[in-house]
């Protein structure tokens, strides 16, 4: 994703992919109050689909720890999987 305005479209795609692959619904979206998640269109979409929006309080970056740790774990997993492939190191 290059631009923040792409977040809404990407989230809709992600939601459909998750629901198709896992047969589970997304129940909540946790965000740091980034502007890309606060648009009226995005909030209305969340409400229409029964997705709770959970915002971290302003000035409390330490509450992003769960998301940051999850991102780090995913990145470590991808790096581990990539090390077992025959792709060139440039990937």
UniProtKB/TrEMBL annotation:
<dbReference type="InterPro" id="IPR036397">
    <property type="entry name" value="RNaseH_sf"/>
</dbReference>
<feature type="domain" description="Integrase catalytic">
    <location>
        <begin position="1"/>
        <end position="91"/>
    </location>
</feature>
<protein>
    <recommendedName>
        <fullName>Integrase catalytic domain-containing protein</fullName>
    </recommendedName>
</protein>
<dbReference type="GO" id="GO:0003676">
    <property type="term" value="F:nucleic acid binding"/>
</dbReference>
<dbReference type="InterPro" id="IPR001584">
    <property type="entry name" value="Integrase_cat-core"/>
</dbReference>
<dbReference type="InterPro" id="IPR039537">
    <property type="entry name" value="Retrotran_Ty1/copia-like"/>
</dbReference>
<dbReference type="GO" id="GO:0015074">
    <property type="term" value="P:DNA integration"/>
</dbReference>
<dbReference type="InterPro" id="IPR012337">
    <property type="entry name" value="RNaseH-like_sf"/>
</dbReference>
């Amino acid at each position: 994703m290059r631009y923040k305005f792409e977040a809404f479209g990407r989230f809709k795609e992600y939601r459909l992919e998750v629901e198709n692959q896992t047969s589970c619904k997304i129940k909540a979206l946790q965000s740091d109050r980034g502007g890309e998640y606060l648009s009226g269109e995005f909030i209305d979409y969340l409400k229409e689909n029964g997705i709770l929006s959970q915002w971290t309080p302003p000035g409390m970056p330490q509450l992003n720890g769960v998301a940051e740790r999850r991102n780090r774990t995913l990145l470590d997993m991808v790096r581990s999987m990539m090390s077992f492939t025959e792709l060139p190191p440039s990937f």
